[in-house]
Amino acid sequence: MGNENEPQTGKGFVGIKGRRIVELHGPDGELKEKREGDNVVVVNGVSKLAEFLNSANAAASTFTFGYLAIGTDATSESSADTDLGTETGRHTSVVSYISAAIYQVKGTFAAGSGTGAIVEYGLFNSNTNGTLFSRDTEAVINKGAGDTLTVTAQYTFSG
Question: What is the per-residue pLDDT for 7?
Fold first, then answer.
């Protein structure tokens, strides 16, 4: 038997698969680059989800994973991550239920916000500090001062 505190898989258990889509648009609005990849749902994120399910009457602001962040640290993601390596921007994002148990968070980093060689993405429950739910690193996207970067994170729940 496994440790009762470790994530379980198989019959009767729920899984979470994270997906991220990033689009870089130039000052004229034209799509310059598009990248897609998988997020690593981190231990603290899963723990916070369990805490939320246990405390549904708590203040909504404590449990709202609706803040996307971007950064420049290319260190590979790990389930033990608690923050981005080098965060360059974080914004309140639009949260929605898509369909078929998909939770989506979409954020836009406008011109002048979060510029640089972007390689890491994270989802948090607060606009500052907070709990990291997932982190992803991908090939660099160079976001210039006039560019707009749209990040979409999707989480599919399955049984």
Answer: 47
